[in-house]
Design brief:
The chain is mainly α and about 70 residues long. It contains 3 helices and no strands. The longest helix has 27 residues. It starts with 15 loop residues before the first helix and ends with a helix.
Length: about 70
Amino acid sequence: MLENLKADKIMVSLPHSLNEELKEFTREFKVSKSGLISQALDFYFDTLDLELAKQRTMQNNKRLNLKEKK
């Protein structure tokens, strides 16, 4: 979960069906919409970072191993 960080307010528009699904999950997990969206974006950005790392590795045609990281 995310730590209590200073938050910026933003306004977003969601398709009705996605907003309804969001409401269902917030009720089920007893979290706020903001909290759930923050967690979802954090997870999604981690996934994107991993995908970018894989793409960069493939572009360089090089595999990394743990010994090289030290």
